[in-house]
Amino acid sequence: MSSTPCSVLTLSSFNLLFFTQVLTVLSSAIKYNEYATDKGGNVSIPCIADGNIMWIKEHGSNNTIIQTGRILVLHNVSTTDSGIYVCFAALPRRITSTTTIITTTTTAIPATSTTTSSQDLSKIESETKMSEHRENQSIDKFASKSETNENKEQEQEEMEYQACQRTLLKVRTPPGPVSQLYFKASTILGFLIWRFNKTQSGGYPVRSFTAEYRNVSYDQMPANESYEHAWSRMDPINIAPNVRQMEVYRLAPNTTYEFRIWANNELGSGEVVTTNVTTLPETKEEVNPMEPKVYQHHLCLSNITIVRLIMSVLSHH
Asked: Are residues 184 and 258 in the same domain?
């Protein structure tokens, strides 16, 4: 698989909604590769990028995260798994650290009169030292906390999401249905006619069509309602993939038949389509009922004439 340039998206945090909204814009410039697998099979698609990998499936504006990891693995795939998958690589990037300014304050010793006793001076000095000690502890604690916050801010990172690869997954299936199926019937024969769109081939070339028919006219309904008349396979058994009509002979007049047809490819038989039709009733020539009598009358007269001729010949001898 050939490498393609990566589109970069930088986010301060992982905002999935925004991320999926800009996905189409990022990946539209990347040409997609194609993978194909049979329905019910498994497929593994590697990403060309390294690092923290995420796979997204395009659904218009509603894109969803499918898997993480460098290799996208799908098991027992169906037609719903077909579509475009985008490989995103998330790479870390450090941000500028924040500088913390610490301000310290000093406490002034209050002024005292010259008349203060030595005992009072000693007491004041002791209180001043204790106050300075507490203030120094507070400053040290604040400075330590500020340093910890600064270290945490330095450890924050932004992520660069690189849309590096688009893959179109095609799921091959048995053929789809034929269209515009109908039967043009006369009394004892007819034509089965259909259309087929090549986009319904299922991903493999159509090898043949198969057509069958059966008589579904009942003089008396069978006792078992699940009873079915046997299907007769039309000849040839494997109809060429470029044929779009077949002639059927030896049908019965004024009889209802059911026809069905399906396409075949490497994965097997496709979707079956059926149609019902009734053949035309048989027509008879009208016969004049007087004709047989006239014929018989003339025949009788002829016989009498022959007999008389024979008798005349014998009498002369």
From this structure: yes
